[in-house]
Amino acid sequence: MFQEDFLWGGAIAANQCEGAYLAGGKGLSIADVMPEGIAGPPTSEPTENNLKLVGIDFYHRYKEDLKLFAEMGFKALRMSIAWSRIFPRGDEEEPNEEGLKFYDSVFDECLKYNIEPIVTLSHYETPLYLAQKYNGFLSRETIDYFVHYAETVFERYKGKVKYWLTFNEINSILEEPLLSGGIWKKDVSISERVQAVHHELVASAMTVRAGHRISTQNRIGCMVLALPVYPYTSNPDDVMEAMNIDHKNYLFTDVQVRGEYPYYFKRWCEEREIQLKVQSEDMQILLNHTVDFISFSYYMSICASKSVKADGKGNLVSGLLNPYLKSSQWGWQIDPKGLRYALNQMYDRYQKPLLIAENGLGAKDELVMGKDGVPTVEDDYRIDYLREHLRQVEEAIQDGVVVIGYTAWGCIDLVSASTSQLSKRYGFIYVDRNDDGSGSLMRYKKKSFEWYKEVIAANGRNLH
Ligand code: BGP
To answer: What CATH topology corresponds to 7-457?
Structure first.
């Protein structure tokens, strides 16, 4: 049984939906110069083939979109603030009032429908200036710029927003230093990546401190990319390999939730000749300002082997294909039970409330004429995916795990983070925009729209 105040909703990120990349005094962010997502190199300036520059024009159409979310009965909307709308370069003292006003209007509109905003402070959209001038979180200075930004929005939206997430998928920084850490330089060594990790973790803890100081109502969570890792075979070498990958991921939540680097971190660094630069107060800050809840994205699991090379594709990380699972059109392996497993693993380790901040199926959709003469998409495959995952959430709740919400990723079609395509659609709402940038930007309800609306209305009681 889902708790009565379960936060049913959807999730989006500013850089993937807002567009209007220069409107209202916004500065450039790294997303504005990554036309191929992580599939290709960044460009020196925004280029026309970058779909994120227009996105789905949420900046101008948020009222229409929020109305549709409200019609589905959303209790929550996970969204991000584009840091570069508030601080166009990232290192200014004074915020950009127009940027602040925009989010005032978005939050007011959410609250009008009793939709609780859950706000990510940094979702793959570091201001470009900070990336180029400071190499993002590789520099210690960026900690202060980030905390100043966080304090500014905590003050401004006090009373409107109480759920906050610090860094989206913080553990992806080891694989994607530009996307996740705003590190502009090429060839980022493992030592530099880990140094940036430390800076993000300290920034996250300082943000928790600031958030709690500014309002006792604030509930501040971390956000990680959850990735159950199964040993490929029962060979103990494969089991150890799976454990090592787990350790690399748990490193982040261990610090953010427990407040200290885990016992295995010292050896891990020594083996890689990493010498972390830590300031005297850092460890105390990490210890004293842990998060209130844990959120994570879940799309897939992977298999790990010591001897066989990875052959799968995946959400920023890839492993070996699991012969027992099917894959999405983008090669991500579909594993609903892995979500129950992830929830249990996480709860077992931390006993903190969990929020599923992202989950969904990226698929090619075909717009067809509906019975009522309005175009729609018959996305039964998406309904099946979501139903199976939600059944497993329910199982985890029966297991005793405390789950506070589920925000389906890309509740309205938006630009993909990894490939920057629009044809990789996740939404309950179809947006008429294509990979070549053509399209009317009109919104159409898919079949899954009605389905999700019924799930929310029944508080998940109709999933079986
Ligand atoms: C996560 C990101 C999201 C989102 C999602 C789906 O990694 O936090 O921003 O995009 O994955 O990935 P993609 O858009 O690459 O299909």
So the answer is: TIM Barrel (3.20.20)
